[in-house]
Amino acid sequence: MKKTLLAALVAAVGLSACSSLDGKSPSEMVKISTERSLTKDYSYNFDGEVRAFLSDKDKGVAPKVEAEVAATENKSSESLAAEAASAAETAAVEAEKAIEASKTAVEHEEEQSESEYVEHDYEMEKTDWGKEITDGLQKYPGVERYLHESRLKFNGAVDLRAKKIEIVPELQIKARNEFSSVKMPILLDGNDMSVSVDTPSSIPMVLNFLIKDPAMRTRMVNQSFRFNWADVENKEIPLKSTLKAVVKSAYTAYNSLPADQFRLDEIDEFGKRVGARYHIRIILTDKNLDTYYQAFFNGFNEELTRLEIAGRDEGSTREGYDKVRSAFEDMKGSASFAAAQTNEWLGAPMVESLYLDRKGRMVGRRSYVQMNGTEKAFNIDMSLAMSRFGNPVFTYQPKASESVSLKELIEAFKAQNSESDEASEQASEDYDYAAEAAAATAEPARKVVKKKAVKKKAAKKRSRSQHRR
């Protein structure tokens, strides 16, 4: 008995040690966490918010990021200089070959000069919108205060095993003598590929003026709106496979970033609140964003192809899969450029913080940016806390039989427009008929007037003739 108990204790200690992330590098921790998110930790509740506010530069959400990025860029410049020196030695050896291609070299030099001119011209047109926004908010304290007292909150549940995701966004404002809250629960159900939305009362209020059917007006007040993929006539697009590929590639793309870009930081207040043991930070520089997006799109294409080989979605076609690949390929070329432009406009890169527990489960994450102005800093902070892993609670559970489908709503709009068109046509016909009737009535009157005028003229003529006699 004692031996059995001792063996059990040893096994428990061994499993505990194996499951701990202690001794792992930050990049290894992230790989373990992303793998868990796809295979184990895919059912949970979440709660988050987005806030924006002004602060002193040294009290913002990322006061040291600019210095860190500058240090990284200086290190990269030194490496590039060393590579350039090595390349110069190689170029000297190949000088004779370069002479033979002198004409091409001259043309290339001209193109390079033109490119540098265009780049210089572009540099002159750059605007640090982050600085402009920060300085602008400082000039208008009323706007800054109202923004500071506003929050975009969101909560919900994820259960990938049950193929359901619930999101409840809420715009909340708590200001002086003012309080408002607008919610809109949303449920994505992968079982029947539907999206249900419980809109604020203002939406059906407006729609009541646009739809004539009394029954539909009443239903919109008391029921949710629902989009059903089954109502779509052309189902060649593999929607289910596309969503699966997006989720997987979004997680695995983190593994493509260089290991030295993941930094283990101290647990901050948010980390303490979510019960994290590890806080890993990533600065999303232009280079890191480019690496992430390229890995995302490549991973998406590979996963979509794998899912297609395993079995196409019901009703989808090969052409549909090709259309999705083509669309994502088009986005791939512009994603990195857009990300780089965003960093330039903001004047600072975004920072991603991942919060893990002892086993590597992601219990929270934050995305934030600090834009420095002349005197102050403007901060945007997006946080997300996860809980109830394996046992999420869904608060919004609409029934298909008690929902207004998008198809029904469109048909109601069409019926309203059709009646309006018929009424317009009838009014036009009535106008034409009235005009014709008026013209027909006026014609005899014109003839009578004309006849009287002729008689009067003849009488005058006879009168003049008698007068001469």
Question: Quick summary of this structure?
Answer:
The chain is an alpha+beta fold and 469 residues long. It contains 14 helices and 13 strands.
Outline? extended
Separate helix tally: 14
Distance between the termini: 160 Å
Q: What summary fits the major beta sheet?
A: 13 strands, mixed
Give the helix proportion (percent range).
55-70%
H-E string: HHEHHHHHEEEEEHHEHEHEHHEEEEH
Roughly what is the average pLDDT, rounded to an integer? 82
What does this structure look like?
The chain has 469 residues and is α+β, with helices and mostly antiparallel strands. 56% of the residues lie in helices and 21% in strands. Strands 1, 2, 3, 4, 5, 6, 7, 8, 9, 10, 11, 12 and 13 form a 13-stranded mixed sheet that branches. A hairpin with a 5-residue loop joins strand 10 (350-356) and strand 11 (362-372). Helix 10 (239-252) packs across helix 12 (286-310) and helix 12 (286-310) runs antiparallel to helix 13 (318-346). The longest helix is centred in the last third of the chain and has 63 residues, at 406-468. It starts with a helix and ends with a helix.
List the helices and strands and how they pair.
Blueprint: H1 2-19, H2 26-39, E1 43-56, H3 65-93, H4 95-100, H5 102-125, H6 129-139, H7 141-148, E2 150-159, E3 164-175, E4 178-183, E5 186-189, E6 194-197, H8 202-208, H9 214-222, E7 224-228, H10 239-252, E8 262-265, H11 269-274, E9 278-284, H12 286-310, H13 318-346, E10 350-356, E11 362-372, E12 376-387, E13 403-405, H14 406-468
Parallel strand pairs: 7-13
Antiparallel strand pairs: 1-2, 1-12, 2-3, 3-4, 3-5, 5-6, 6-7, 8-9, 9-10, 10-11, 11-12
Helix pairs in contact: 10-12, 12-13
